[in-house]
Amino acid sequence: MSAELKHKQATAPAVQVRGLNVVYATNQGDLPAVRQVDLDIEARKITGIIGESGSGKSTLVMAMMNAVGKPGQIVSGSVEVLGVGDMLSIDRERQRKARGKELGLVFQAAQNSLNPLRRIGHQVLDLGRSHDVKDLRDLLRKAKDLLTRLGMDADRVLASYQHELSGGMRQRVGIMFALILDAKIVILDEATTALDMLSQASVLEIVRELHKERGLTTILVTHDMGVVADMADRVVVMYGGEIVEEGPSEFVLSHPAHPYTQGLVRAIPRISGDIDRAVPLQGAPADLKTYLEPGCPFYQRCPVAMPKCQESRPTSLAVSQDRKVACFKVTDHD
Amino acid sequence: MKIVMIRFVKRLIAGLIMILVVASFTFLLVRLMPGDPVQAKYDQLLLNGLTPIQAMDEVRVMYGFIPHQPLWIQYVHYLSQILHLNLGQSISYEGTPVMRIILGAAPWTIILVLTGTIASFIVGVLAGVIAAIKRNSLAGSAITISGSVLHGIPLFVMALFLAYVLTTIYAILPFGAPYNAALTPGFNGPFLSSLARHALLPVFTYALSSYGGWLLTMKSSVISVLGDDFILASEVRGLKTSTRIGYIAHNAILPLFTILALSIGFMFGGSLFIEDIFDYPGLGNLLVNAINSRDYPLMSGAFLLITVAVIASNIITDFLYSVVDPRIRR
Ligand SMILES: Nc1ncnc2c1ncn2[C@@H]1O[C@H](COP(=O)(O)OP(=O)(O)O)[C@@H](O)[C@H]1O
Ligand SMILES: [Mg+2]
């Protein structure tokens, strides 16, 4: 019995998203940027969230921290974080404490994530004081270690203002801020996008090392299939605010089931192995109109669409033990 | 720090050039004035029975330059006099050096502008922060409206209204004169309190007239900072609310220093109005009187000194700005 309980705890998801809906109020109407998302983030794994720009990845991860900015609003759902509770309903002070300490986020605009009028070192101290860190000198030491690992001159960086650092350096500083309070769940939203290929590879390598060392639960948001292939244990594919496919990355990448995932995989020369055979995805990414249509959001661009796909929306169904797909073509076998 | 100094020196040089331009301008103004006041004074002195040489000496002392000399010699003479802080003698205050009259009037204006600006800046900025953070609430809207209304009322209307209410209807405050003439000036209680009571109405009017501007500017500045990515980042990192408000306020207030520097000229303009209405003996009042009595030496002296004051405060504000904003320091 107790062994069973232990096993259950060990495999309990680090983050459990249920029925999440987020809308942005725009002048053309409400845009449902995240729609009816159910998602389990497995503890101690690297989960890649992939999709074209505008598919709702950033909104999803911001909603996990209950930090969706105006004009966005979380309409419904729950985000159960292991050891914290439902981020969407616990009181504000506990939410604040969880941010940074339990959930570390490097968000997409990490290059501009620093107060331009304060030295980086001071901002580290501000963070420590906000989270009641007793030993602030130790915190600075940790900051230095992380910065050094990320390939920077730590003392110089801590004494610098944001404008004295390059875009890539700022992004690494953003990563340092997400890790410094030893958050167990770390979310990197396009955290390496501003870096050149070489430093991107080295930063990802460090992320992978830290992930292993600290037993982290890592969420990597990216639009680069190559990054997912290199790093992720699991992959979550988003389109038009919905999760269209998810599963272990090796299987999803080698045998993509959803036509959208297939398109993404075909578009990556590194995966198809041959640049000439890389086929870019046809058509434009989902926009407000697509969001509001009753059918499958991918219908317009889908090479294998059926009449049914225009009328109703496919729900996400398990096709094997740990793999889910939202596509009539895949799930309507019988 | 070196960059700050270079910037400072550049500003200083630009300021000196500006002062030279203004000095040249006032020189030409007096020389080219219809009816040539210098010549007129000279003729008048001759009529009063002075010899040409006496009259010429008299005029030179008064205006700082000599008629019947080539213009450029007059100009050089005038500039060298200014360098010796000699602005000539007043006509209306017979024989008193202009410099002494101006230095007597300057403190009143400085008190008025300085206290009025500091008071309105502090209150306006704080109210602006609240108006921005609580902009969707009743209190926030009320604060914003107070700013818009006060900002929209012309200065002289506000001054007359306040004077009417506070000195005539309720007679709480004295009107006119900088202090009760029955008291002996000095560092004693009754005199100082009389001084403060007399200053209250002009200072209050002055502060009230600039409060709305600070409030509205600070509000929009805070709102724009609230939309910045680093504010969202500070929320995502779980910084304390007090720390975040500090970040917001610090970033939002910086543009206001630029505006402060730019508006120092206008502040003297406002002071001129108020001193005139409340008959308060500052530089503005002096300038108006000088204009009314055609006291050209006093007029150009006051004009020159106000210019110097504006330029100097601009340079100081700019220097302070580069100290508070690290981005300028590179
Ligand atoms: N602040 C905002 N206001 C209005 N619409 C927004 C805002 N932020 C994002 N959106 C919209 O929400 C959708 C999802 O955006 P986002 O989550 O940023 O996608 P991704 O991270 O996958 O690129 C997009 O259609 C985008 O236009
Ligand atoms: Mg994004």
3D architecture notes:
The longest helix of chain A is centred in the middle third of the chain and has 18 residues, at about 195-215. Chain A has 15 helices and twelve strands. Chain A has helices at about 1-10, 55-65, 90-100, 120-130, 135-150, 155-160, 165-180, 195-215, 225-230, 250-255, 260-265, 270, 290, 305-310, 330; strands at about 15-25, 30-40, 45-50, 70-80, 85, 105, 185-190, 215-220, 235-240, 240-250, 315-320, 325. Chain A is an alpha/beta fold and about 325 residues long. With about 325 residues, chain B is mostly helical. Chain B has a domain at about 105-295: MetI-like fold. Chain B contains twelve helices and no strands. Chain B is globular. At the A-B interface, helix 3, helix 4 and helix 7 of A face helix 9 and helix 10 of B. Magnesium ion binds near residues 58, 108, 189 and 190 of chain A.
| Coarse shape of chain B | globular
Helix content of chain B: over 70%
Mean pLDDT of chain B: 85
Stated plainly, the CATH topology of chain A is called Rossmann fold
Q: Reading side by side through the largest sheet of chain A, how are the strands ordered? A: 6-7-8-3-9-10-12-11
Instruction: Let me know the number of strands of chain A.
Output: 12
Give the count of helical stretches of chain B: 12
Radius of gyration of chain A, Cα only, in angstroms? 20 Å
How would you spell out the order of helices and strands of chain A? Answer: HEEEHEEHEHHHHEHEHEEHHHHHEEH
> Taking Cα atoms only, what radius of gyration of chain B do you get, to the nearest Å?
24 Å
Distance between the termini of chain B: 9 Å
Ligand types: adenosine-5'-diphosphate, magnesium ion
CATH architecture of the domain at 107-294 in chain B: Orthogonal Bundle
- Helix segment tally of chain A: 15
